[in-house]
Design brief:
With 139 residues, the protein is an alpha+beta fold. It has one domain. The strands form 2 sheets. Strands 1, 2, 3, 9 and 10 form a 5-stranded antiparallel beta sheet that branches. Strands 4, 5, 6, 7 and 8 form a 5-stranded antiparallel beta sheet that branches. It starts with a helix and ends with a strand. The N terminus is likely disordered.
């Protein structure tokens, strides 16, 4: 009888542990494939994985310049259109470490579809273009 009670208790314990593990929440995240262009020339093609609601960042350096991109991605909607909302900060880093923000674009994208935004400065004729393909990812 004691062996049966112990066996039932072990079975219940194993079942309960499995159920708790199966129901543990997964964190939503996103894989972002980006392309940053300045004045029509591609300067960076980073890939970044971010958790929903958290800011991810990447810094890239070439012979000509050092750029940074920060992004916060969440589920969002604009005018009843749902998708992945990404808020970016795009800028340059000077040799002394000073950061200059070039643009703060926001993009609502469908999953696995390219979304693009271009910001142009009419005064100096410079433009910054950012395209992104976002994919949902369980983290």
């Amino acid at each position: 009888m004691n062996a049966l009670i112990i066996a039932l208790a072990l079975s219940f314990s194993t079942f309960f542990s499995s159920a708790v593990l199966a129901e543990s929440p997964t964190t939503t995240g996103y894989t972002l494939k980006m392309e940053l262009s300045m004045n029509g020339k591609v300067v960076s093609t980073p890939r970044l994985v971010v958790r929903s609601g958290e800011t991810g960042s990447i810094t890239e350096e070439s012979a000509a310049r050092k750029t940074f991109i920060e992004v916060t991605a969440t589920e969002g909607s604009v005018q009843k259109r749902k998708g992945i909302m990404m808020n970016f900060v795009v800028g340059l880093i000077a040799k002394d470490g000073t950061r200059t923000v070039l643009s703060r674009p926001s993009i609502l994208a469908n999953e696995n579809e390219k979304a693009e935004i271009t910001v142009a400065d009419k005064e100096n004729g410079e433009s910054v273009a950012l395209s992104v393909i976002a994919t949902r990812k369980a983290l």
